[in-house]
Amino acid sequence: MSTLLNPSSETRIRGGLKVLTDRFNVAELTQAGKQLLLPMVGILIFLGFWHLAAPQVNTSLGTFPGPVQVWEQSGQLWQEHLNQRERADKFVTMQEERNARILAEDPNAKVKIRGYPGAPTFLDQIATSLVTVMAGFLLATAIAVPLGIVLGLNRHLQAAVNPLIQIFKPVSPLAWLPLVTMVVSATYVSDDPMFEKSFLTSMITVTLCSLWPTLINTGVGVAAVNPDLLNVSRVLQLSFWTHVRKVVLPSSIPIIFTGLRVSLGIAWMVLIAAEMLAQSPGLGKFVWDEFQNGSSQSLSRIMAAVLAIGFIGFVLDRIMLMIQKKIAWNE
Amino acid sequence: MTKPHLELTGVEMAFDTPKGSFVALDNINLKIKKGEFVSLIGHSGCGKSTVLNIVAGLLQASKGGCILDGHEINAPGPERAVVFQNHALMPWLTVYENVELAVQQVFRKTMTKQERRSWIHHNLELVNMAHAANKRPGEISGGMAQRVGIARALAMKPSVLLMDEPFGALDALTRAHLQDSLMSIQQDLNNTVIMITHDVDEAVLLSDRIIMMTNGPAAAVGEDLYINLERPRNRVTLADDPTYVHYRQEVLKFLYEKQRKLENIAPHRNKKATSTTTNHSAQTAKI
């Protein structure tokens, strides 16, 4: 564009443009700054309040941890994780060396390969929890979405099933847990189990508690398809599957996703409680173990876990939001 | 032309209400020829939509029936394509995909992929919407969306095109423009069309025949007016044409003198009761 202008006016215009872009950048920066600034202020005020208030609270395990102690313990937890990894690596190499030696002496000897027996670290527990919650949530989705579609399409069935949904929806995970534990121990009997029983127990409890919002929202979304669009589908004589795939599902995707996000939030909350009570591996068990441990650092470590739980829940929700924006047509 | 193309015989429609049966339509008889453009006009709640929905197969008549080319109508089907008042396009599909959904369904077996694609484009061009093929309904205006709705219906190659107040939700200028498009398309394709309208000018300008319906409940065909005006018709020159003005007056007289009189004769208390039930029935009919 600038080639069209003569040199003298070009420099003038460039100067003008520069001022303009600078101003634009400044405006953009203040906009971004404002968006970041206020949350930062909020967090800082909270940290200050926490820092001042924590020493006032005395417990049998010392004063309540402030942000500084929690930060230190977070570093400590990370360090423990690294140390543990190092030891595990050493264990594996030592085992491999020993096995190689045995095999060199006698090629027919049976060598044993054992897993590292060390206790899981904080990060291992997070990983376990994430796997469990995803498994439970996916199972809940796999049940709730198809069932919700069926209920949404059939008003009579909806009327029949609705009271059951209303009754089971508010049940706490802690009430389900003993039943699930007993049923899993009784029915999942195998010499070479694919899953740990504790994993199944937590996962099924998560499923039972988290499927309701998705189920209800799917039902509502499917029942609320624009009647004109239903008539279009009838005029076109779409088959049942095409009708569901091309009309019902796309139309209710936004409301289904709202349900899925609530479900995932519930799944994460329920999982922590279930792990605590069931003593199945995961973040909940970490919190409980620290509580039982009762050292002077326990409270700081629990607080670090609390923050981690909150942050992970937030990230999970953001991921769902991203998927929703990818899939839903109205975003 | 001994057998009519589309025939409604003794159609009666009764809806079950908590207060008992409500008769919306009473003994509707109509014979429609192939290629005829028929408008249904009447006050709101008189059961125009119900008649259209019965022909579409979306509603089942309580008594009597409807025969198209020798076959009784008892379910909806693409040979009776419907253009809805509010375009009824799938908001998650593009303009092209909306028409594709219909074409895919109707011509899956008889057309190759290539043929289907060019047929979709042909229909979008017919309504001057080819330029927006990749836009979603939310990104185009109401008038444009309604064109796509018409393109989708035409793409099914229907033997009867049913239009439920197709231009009712549009502003006057857009409406005039779409009426002209519809007239020229109709000139080329010679479809049988049944159109519901509230608009007297629209009815006279577009139709070969105007069916005027009496007020509900128990609405029936009041008058059946043939419009003998040369085609192509031009809205500007027709505006002073004495024949056009005469037809227009006929319809206005029916709507505002004859039908109004009937309402006034009814005792005041009765009238109130009927008007509420009429509204109710109109709602159920739309659902």
Key terms for this structure?
heterodimer; A: 331 residues; mainly alpha; 10 helices; disordered N terminus; B: 287 residues; four-stranded antiparallel sheet; 43% helix; globular; disordered C terminus
Largest sheet of chain A: 2 strands, antiparallel
Strand order of the largest sheet of chain A: 1-2
Largest interface: A-B, 19 and 25 residues
User: Rg of chain B to the nearest angstrom?
Assistant: 19 Å
* Alpha plus pi helix count of chain B: 9
Q: Give the overall shape of chain B, derived from the CA principal axes.
A: globular
Q: How many H/I helical runs of chain A?
A: 10
Give a count of the beta strands of chain A, DSSP E runs of length 2 or more.
2
Derived from helix and strand composition plus strand pairing, the structural class of chain B reads alpha/beta
- What do the pLDDT scores of chain B average to? 86
How much helix, percentage-wise, in residues of chain A? Answer: over 70%
Shape of chain A: globular
Total number of domains of chain A: 2
Oligomer: heterodimer
CATH architecture annotation name of the largest domain in chain A: Orthogonal Bundle
Percent of residues in helices of chain B:
40-55%
Query: What share of residues are in beta strands of chain B?
Result: 15-25%
Whole-number mean pLDDT of chain A: 87
C-alpha end-to-end distance of chain B:
36 Å
In CATH, what is the homologous superfamily of the domain at 6-79 and 192-286 in chain B?
P-loop containing nucleotide triphosphate hydrolases
Specify the CATH homologous superfamily of the largest domain in chain A: MetI-like
